[in-house]
Specification:
Elements (H helix, E strand, L loop, with lengths): L5 E9 L2 E5 L5 E5 L3 H11 L3 E6 L10 E3 L2 E5 L4 H20 L10 H21 E10 L6 H8 L4 E5 L7 H4 L5 H8 L4 E4 L2 H15 L2 E3 L2 E3 L5 E6 L6 H9 L1 H13 L5 E8 L6 H13 L8 E8 L6 H21 L7 E4 L5 H10 L2 E4 L8 H9 L6 E5 L12 E3 L4 H13 L2 H17 L2 H15 L12
Parallel strand pairs: 1-4, 1-7, 4-6, 7-8, 8-9, 9-12, 13-14, 13-16, 14-15, 16-17, 17-18
Antiparallel strand pairs: 2-3, 5-6, 10-11, 11-12
Helix pairs in contact: 1-16, 2-3, 3-4, 6-7, 8-13, 9-12, 10-11, 10-14
The protein binds 6-O-phosphono-alpha-D-glucopyranose.
Length: about 475
């Protein structure tokens, strides 16, 4: 099948669809629930957009296809490349390095070679698919070499890059054996976007130190005369859609059913995370268990619901974490639970948005305590669902979201006593106090939704290369 000539090309490690088996036994695609595709869909539709990514399965090469009006262009990965590029360099080297070395990054030359090879393949696909003078928007840490590789193939393109995860301080980035190559890869873009201004600052400083280019504030002056702009674009969610879902009768009924299933406790605390060692699940559950053991809460009237979504299960560190959490939950429930009243209701499974919204509606206190997190959309989703201006958010100061959600109970996940105090305060807060905080956070999240984020990025990208011929058609 021939590929489309697209004026807007999204390049991300994953396609925005998952393979599913249809009722008739045939194969089909289901749109993945992420906010990114929802935000980009209108702008892609009005600009002959295409999305380039991996299907999530080994050697899966169905060729370009259209799903519900979106042009999708799969990039195949072999089993070996999944091990070396995805599980290896992306998730056992870059992921821990960029998250403050919470786990030890592994550096292997073969993994790096696979990373280069796969990035080259993504760049080649983008070069084939993009129309003349098109805009290409590359996403996340798995594809940091794509901007430069693509620019070599197609100098006519306008190229943007957005990093969804943190960008580390110069001292930590310095450990990376291929630090210069990664920086040069990113410098192929016209705009390099980060979640926070601090991350953009780290990047510009590193470019000055390690590559030697001239910089001024958020600009890098390239030897070929181009300028590269490094800026913060804090990502968000489809706020209105979440609120609408939360207000629906079926979510309201499901939220009530969840409370009943839990024995109608007075208080429900909730954690929802990908099962990842950056998320700080362990200290959060320890803080909760100590509060129960010390008598601040009783399992008769309070419960902590922890949902851990399975993730990257073939990566060693994630296996170790799963065993750690299993053991911890088992011990806490063994020590503190009563018949029919566990201290922690733990689920290792992934839920659709509907169930997530019902959990957010059912929870009195949402507990989000990552050691380091680029943004954390769960915190924003909780806020979007609390249309009664109630509910408390306990949030790690090391989540990007803490920059915007200042009215949360901000905690340091390394400080168990501090977290215990915050949990007690948040749980016992007066309704007036909860309303004051939630109202302010809801304003922030409704004014800055994912569509505003996408439009701002694309507008910056357009003005970063004003001499460029082609303008994207705006959506609204
Ligand atoms: C983070 C990353 C994304 C990634 C997602 C799920 O949010 O920023 O790039 O897609 O985790 O991880 P996975 O490895 O399953 O794609």
């Amino acid at each position: 099948m021939t590929s489309p000539a697209a004026d807007l090309v999204i390049v991300a490690n994953r396609l925005p669809v998952d393979r599913v088996t249809l009722p008739d036994g045939g194969q089909g695609w289901r749109r993945s629930p992420g906010g990114l595709v929802t935000a980009l869909e209108p702008v892609m539709r009005s600009n002959d957009g295409a999305w380039i990514g991996w299907t999530g399965q080994a050697d899966d090469d169905p060729g370009a296809f259209v799903d519900d009006g979106l042009s999708l262009v799969p990039v195949p990965l072999s089993g070996g490349e999944i091990e070396e590029f995805y599980e290896g360099f992306s998730n056992a080297t870059l992921w821990p390095l960029y998250h403050d070395v919470v786990a030890k990054p592994e550096f292997h030359r073969e993994w790096w070679e696979a990373y280069v090879r796969v990035n080259q393949r993504f760049a080649e696909r983008a070069a084939e698919v993009a129309a003349r003078d098109a805009t290409v928007w590359v996403h996340d840490y798995q594809l940091q070499l794509v901007p430069q590789l693509l620019r070599e193939l197609r100098p006519d393109l306008r190229i943007g890059f957005f990093l969804h995860i943190p960008f580390p301080p110069t001292e930590l980035f310095g450990q990376m054996p291929w630090r210069r190559e990664l920086l040069e890869g990113l410098l192929g873009a016209d705009v390099v976007g980060f979640q926070l201004t601090g991350a953009a600052g780290n990047f510009v400083r590193l470019v000055r130190q390690r590559v030697g280019h001239k910089t001024h504030r958020d600009l890098v002056y390239m030897p070929d005369g181009r300028t590269v702009q490094a800026m913060a674009f804090p990502i968000s969610i489809d706020t209105a859609a979440f609120e609408e879902l939360a207000r629906s009768d079926s979510v309201t009924e499901r939220a009530a059913a969840i409370r009943t299933a839990l024995g109608n406790p007075e208080r429900i605390l909730l954690g929802i995370d990908r099962l990842d060692y950056t998320k700080g699940i362990n200290p959060r559950l320890r803080a909760w268990s100590e509060l129960v053991a010390e008598g601040h809460f009783s399992v008769r009237d309070s419960v902590f619901v922890q949902v851990a979504t399975p993730s990257r299960e073939r990566v060693q560190q994630y296996r170790v974490l799963r065993d750690d959490i299993d053991r911890l939950v088992g011990r806490i429930n063994g020590d503190l639970g009563r018949l029919g009243s566990p201290a922690i209701a733990y689920m290792h499974s992934s839920f659709p948005r509907h169930e997530m919204a019902a959990l957010y509606r059912a929870a009195d206190v949402m507990v989000v305590t990552p050691f380091r997190d680029g943004m954390n959309l769960v915190a924003k989703e909780y806020v979007a669902c609390r249309y009664d201006n109630d509910g408390a958010l306990v949030l790690s100061e090391f989540a990007g979201a803490a920059n915007e959600l200042r009215q949360a109970w901000l905690v340091n996940p390394w400080d168990i006593n501090g977290m215990k105090e915050a949990l007690v305060e948040a749980t016992r807060a007066e309704p007036k106090e909860l309303t004051r905080r939630m109202k302010a956070m809801r304003k922030t999240v409704s004014e800055n939704d994912v569509a505003a984020w996408a439009n701002r990025f694309l507008a910056e990208l357009e003005s970063a290369r004003p001499a460029h011929n082609k303008k994207l058609r705006p959506v609204r």
